[in-house]
Amino acid sequence: MNLKHTLYIGSILILSGCSLFRPSPNKLFKRALKNQPYDVIIVPGCPFDGTDWSTAMKGRVIWADYLIKKGVAKNVIFSGGSVYSPYIESRVMALYAEALGTPKEKIITEEKAEHTTENVYNSYQIAKKMGFTKIAVASDPFQSNLLMGFTNRRFKLPIAHIPFIIDTLKTIDKVHPIINPESAHVDNFKSIAETQSKWHRFRGTRGKNIKFEKE
What we know:
This protein is an alpha/beta fold and 215 residues long. It has one domain: Rossmann fold (3-Layer(aba) Sandwich), CATH 3.40.50. The protein has 9 helices and 5 strands. It has a 5-stranded parallel β-sheet, with helices on both faces. Helix 1 (3-16) runs parallel beside helix 9.
């Protein structure tokens, strides 16, 4: 096993903790329905290649749009900078959400995060400054599973998790919105793979590059 695979597996184990014992997406969704509405949901970003959204991005954006329209959440923070491509991930996701019909006034973008832990932390800080107290992460089941340990340990305000339900998503994913990603493009871009070492990126995955503020 090479270093890259070792670090990848290690990061999964560290972030997920006892992931096999996490509640199922259906259980978490039922729990979310009992506690709705949430002031805001945080949706971590995905790289964008400049042509079309990936399966991961599509699932997260459609799920966010679904939660807003169903009244489970009042607002959404899409999070992510230009990390692996010259497109600010959160802006691209916001454009797709608008194309799906998510009201623009309900969409907030966090545009600096380079890692999933930073997606959550930076967005949490924005949410607090906006006076939001009921916060949830809305993503795919795998990413939600990885983040539960981190959110349970690090934040004063409780953060719920609302991973998408695959069967529900299948009934609403037959959409192909078209966007102009020009407003999300950045000039003089350098990939994080060029600007950070593998070790620095591994630390970022674990949240070790975050300067946590006292609450």
